[in-house]
């Protein structure tokens, strides 16, 4: 019997990277198929191909529905053929009503007039299928995140989906809501829909999945019935990459034993979700010259930890922070204060939080220390600024045509070096790194690793949050693993292994 | 970016200005380029360009100030009333008017920065409020300030002083360009000496133009060569990056609005003096002229991009259009139509050129 949906040797290239390298996948009617893999393994790319976001012709290989070749050109076409994707982030318009969201872009009625009674009635019907009984005229923003997630699924079902793709549907849900959702997914499958279920939570996978495919570095490493796996074997398949490919360990001087930064009982509530925490009662310290690794999956609280330490109080927090013998209750009031104390943060999202795109490389380099380059009359001493910028740029081997070019013309690796150099100009004591090599090519990665090691060897304390296991294992002196906002393991060098980190992260 | 370098964009604007000048001087058989008319034109552009110089700082930080026209009218009228009704000395009245502008600007800045109300709304509200206060104060009657007051709007520098200003600008340009950009420096030097000669062929350099140049130079220094100014560019260019670099965003925004308020007051004094009276609708629509001048001069409403000299050129372009069309006795309704079309055309040309470049 042919499968409902069949992917055959899909290859997808992005400039400089092969995201998918010959992935095959079969989905059968009535089956829940789990797709597992580390961040960056290629899951999202695969989903986007199935949902028509990357149209036919932008990839190699074939996709067949009922044995007939599919050539999708848009998400809308995918939906018309019965393939619906519920993305990880909610795609609802907050201020519009439940019913309007349900039929967004395919409004009931004709071109001139929206048929409201029909819209409401069908919205009620679709909601009933996912066990919801809400007023369809209520704005979506008044519903809980869990219900909004269900609305998304109801929307997908109302499109007569035969293949339903769920990308981390429980990531933002409470346990109760997650349990409800899992039950619903089972019901949907039992009515003959094929479900592709993507999740980091392995216990969920084993609760509902009939079969599992593990992706790693753009390849499907193994695929088969769920009964053929254990949690440990899934983890092993997810991480089993050749660790030798990561940086060969270069000896770094051991930590000095002098504490550079200490944090006690650090808690960060989740914005908009009273009672829920992005981080709960976390205590840690880092020594001068030490690289402290922070492991954990997306949403485990890594980013929340680093940004609150840096005084980003867009999420409030409680706890105690000490540096140089001084102690602060709660966090710094803003990054300015954190910088004054010798902290600095290289954030995960360079484009959004790091660079001022149109400004010159020199100016971006000096952005956090412009006040240091004041000359006569309070005017900037450009010569002094440029020579300091040039010194840092040379030390970090920033490759730019000149320091006068706009920062957004540099490659990803060089942009990252500019951000790093900016902080070195402020004379930091503690360097916070959040995914420092995301989206950076292999060559530049090696250089950034070397830089991090050199900086630590020079006495800087480094906290490195990364979802890239080889990177974490190769650079860190010690690793803390976070899981759902809590510390789930502290690993010393003798305990370092990808499996250990993955186990702690998924527990 | 940090040096006063002439980009293709500036060259384009200069070319547009020359083209406009050429067309009008042919159409008016030379009247447009006569010393008398150019002196007139420069006085007309002074108020708008002063406002535009301040507006660049605000827009570059990703903000907008719609209240500057009404604020100029209000501050000018307050100064005039202080002189006429309270018998205050002119310098003291000017000082108080400048303080008033700064305070009003700061208040709006605080509403924008601390309460996170969109600047469009705060300053739209401010515009209406200031217009109302102005009407209430003047009761619809125009107030004529004393002669000493009128000096900032109507007087001229002596021939010697005009040569002095032209010479000083020329020397400064040459000094700046001593190592690189010699050609540019020499052309600026020759240009400023030529303009000095031109102004002296009529009555000398008008005082409002001197004030405009001084203000523009000061704002160029602030925007391009102080940490404060560069912070404004960073805030407008990427607010998150600026935040993570430890820049005190709220304080910088309040400061920008405060400066803008003081500039609006200064422009209001010049306006009142030039017209010779403070009227109840003084300054109306000036905010839009100032924004248009800044935008035609290459300032991006998205923030992060723009220059004070560009705004000055933009002000010269719009003032030339007004002036030339008046000389030709064009029906008055054509002026806003043409200006609007030029505004949209300038920005669309900028956008398509930028796309082509990147």
Structure description:
The complex is a heterodimer of chains A (507) and B (358). Chain A is α/β, with parallel strands linked by helices and 507 residues long. Helix content of chain A is 32%, strand content 24%. Chain A has 17 helices and 20 strands. In chain A, the strands form four sheets. In chain A, strands 6-7-8-3-9-10 form a six-stranded mixed beta sheet, sandwiched between helices. In chain A, strands 16-17-18-13-19-20 form a six-stranded mixed beta sheet, sandwiched between helices. Chain A has a four-stranded antiparallel beta sheet with strand order 2-1-4-5, with helices on one face. In chain A, helix 4 crosses helix 5 and helix 8 crosses helix 17. Chain B has 358 residues and is an all-alpha fold. Helices cover 76% and strands 0% of the residues of chain B. Chain B has 15 helices and no strands. In chain B, helix 4 packs antiparallel against helix 5 and helix 9 crosses helix 10. The longest helix of chain B has 27 residues.
Global geometry of chain B: globular
Q: Tell me the series of helices and strands of chain B, N- to C-terminal.
A: HHHHHHHHHHHHHHH
Question: Which structural class should the secondary elements of chain A be placed in?
Answer: alpha/beta
> N-to-C terminal Cα separation of chain B, in Å?
17 Å
Largest interface: A-B, 33 and 24 residues
Averaged pLDDT of chain A: 87
Count every beta strand of chain B, where a strand is a DSSP E run of 2 or more residues.
Answer: 0
Assembly state here? heterodimer
- How many H/I helical runs of chain B? 15
Shape of chain A: globular
Strand content of chain B: under 5%
Helix content of chain B: over 70%
Structural class of chain B: mainly alpha
Describe the strand arrangement of the main beta sheet of chain A, using strand numbers.
6-7-8-3-9-10
Q: How many β-strand stretches of chain A? A: 20
Strand count, sense and closure of the main sheet of chain A? 6 strands, mixed
Mean pLDDT of chain B: 91
Using only C-alpha atoms, the radius of gyration of chain A works out to: 25 Å
């Amino acid at each position: 019997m042919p499968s409902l949906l069949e992917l055959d040797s899909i290859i997808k290239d992005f400039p400089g990277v092969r995201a998918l390298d010959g992935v095959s996948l079969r989905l059968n009617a009535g089956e829940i198929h789990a797709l597992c893999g580390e961040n960056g393994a290629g899951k999202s790319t695969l989903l986007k191909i199935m949902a028509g976001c990357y149209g036919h012709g932008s990839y190699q290989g074939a996709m067949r529905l009922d044995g007939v070749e599919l050539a999708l050109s848009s998400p809308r076409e995918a939906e018309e053929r019965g393939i619906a994707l519920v993305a990880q982030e909610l795609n609802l318009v907050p201020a519009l009503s439940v019913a309007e969201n349900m039929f967004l872009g395919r409004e009931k009625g004709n071109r001139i007039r929206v048929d409201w009674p029909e819209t409401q009635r069908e919205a009620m019907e679709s909601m009933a299928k996912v066990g919801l009984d809400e007023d369809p005229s209520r704005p979506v923003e008044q519903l809980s995140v869990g219900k909004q997630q269900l609305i998304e699924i109801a929307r997908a079902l109302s499109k007569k989906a035969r293949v339903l793709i769920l990308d981390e549907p429980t990531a933002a849900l409470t346990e109760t809501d997650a349990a409800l959702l899992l039950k619903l997914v089972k019901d949907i499958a039992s009515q003959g829909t094929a479900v592709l279920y993507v999740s980091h939570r392995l216990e969920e996978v084993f609760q509902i999945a009939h079969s599992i495919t593990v992706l790693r570095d753009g390849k499907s490493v193994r695929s088969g019935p769920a009964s053929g796996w254990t949690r440990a074997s899934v983890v092993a398949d997810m991480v089993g990459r050749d660790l030798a490919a990561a940086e060969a360990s270069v000896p770094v001087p051991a930590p000095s034993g002098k504490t550079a930064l200490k944090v006690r009982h650090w808690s960060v509530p989740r914005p908009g979700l009273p009672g829920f925490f992005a981080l709960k009662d976390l205590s840690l310290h880092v020594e001068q010259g030490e690289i402290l690794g922070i492991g954990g999956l997306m949403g485990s609280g890594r980013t929340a930890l680093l940004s609150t330490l840096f005084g980003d109080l867009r999420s409030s927090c409680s706890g105690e922070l000490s540096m140089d013998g001084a102690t602060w209750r709660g966090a710094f009031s803003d990054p300015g204060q954190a910088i004054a104390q010798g902290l600095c943060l290289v954030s995960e999202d360079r484009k959004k939080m790091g660079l001022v795109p149109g400004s010159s490389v020199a100016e971006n380099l000096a952005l956090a220390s412009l006040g240091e380059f004041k000359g006569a009359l309070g005017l900037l001493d450009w010569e002094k600024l440029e020579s300091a910028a040039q010194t840092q740029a040379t030390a970090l081997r920033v490759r730019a045509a000149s320091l006068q070019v706009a920062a957004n013309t540099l490659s990803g690796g060089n942009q990252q070096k500019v951000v790093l150099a900016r902080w070195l100009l402020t004379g930091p004591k503690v360097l916070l790194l959040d995914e420092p090599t995301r989206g950076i090519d292999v060559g530049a990665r090696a250089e950034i690793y070397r830089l991090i090691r050199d900086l630590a060897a020079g006495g800087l304390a480094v906290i490195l949050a990364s979802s890239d296991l080889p990177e974490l294992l190769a650079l860190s002196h010690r690793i803390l693993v976070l899981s759902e906002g809590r510390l789930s393991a502290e690993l010393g060098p003798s305990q370092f292994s990808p499996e250990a980190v993955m186990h702690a992260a998924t527990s | 970016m940090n040096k006063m370098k002439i980009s293709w964009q500036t060259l384009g604007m200069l070319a547009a200005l020359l083209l406009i000048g050429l067309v009008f001087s042919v159409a008016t058989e030379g009247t447009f380029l006569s010393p008398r008319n150019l002196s007139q034109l420069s006085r007309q552009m002074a108020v708008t360009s002063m406002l535009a110089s301040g507006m660049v700082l605000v827009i570059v930080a990703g903000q907008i100030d719609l209240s500057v026209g009404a604020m100029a009218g209000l501050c000018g009228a307050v100064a005039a009333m202080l002189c006429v009704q309270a018998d205050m000395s002119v310098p003291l009245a000017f000082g108080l008017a400048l303080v008033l502008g700064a305070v009003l600007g700061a208040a709006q800045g605080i509403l924008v920065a601390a309460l996170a109300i969109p600047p469009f709304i705060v300053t739209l509200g401010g515009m209406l409020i200031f217009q109302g206060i102005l009407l209430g104060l003047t009761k619809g009657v125009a107030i004529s300030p004393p002669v000493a007051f009128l000096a900032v709007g109507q007087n001229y520098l002596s021939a010697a002083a005009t040569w002095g200003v032209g010479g000083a600008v020329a020397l400064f340009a040459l000094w700046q360009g001593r190592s690189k950009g010699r050609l540019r420096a020499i052309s600026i030097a020759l240009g400023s000496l030529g303009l000095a000669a031109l102004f002296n062929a009529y009555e000398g350099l008008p005082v409002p133009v001197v004030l405009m140049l001084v203000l523009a130079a000061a704002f160029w220094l602030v925007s391009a060569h102080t940490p404060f100014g560069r912070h404004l560019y960073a805030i407008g260019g990427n607010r998150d990056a600026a935040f993570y670099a430890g820049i005190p965003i709220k304080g910088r925004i309040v400061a920008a609005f405060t400066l803008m308020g003081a500039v609006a007051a200064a422009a209001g004094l010049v306006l009142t003096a030039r017209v010779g009276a403070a009227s109840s609708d003084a300054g109306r629509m000036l905010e839009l002229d100032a924004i248009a001048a800044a935008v035609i001069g290459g300032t991006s409403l998205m923030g992060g991009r723009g220059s004070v000299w560009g705004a000055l050129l933009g002000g010269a372009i719009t003032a030339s259009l007004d002036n030339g069309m008046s000389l030709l006795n064009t029906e008055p309704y054509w002026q806003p139509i043409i200006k609007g079309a030029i505004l949209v055309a300038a920005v669309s040309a900028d956008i398509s050129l930028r796309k082509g470049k990147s």
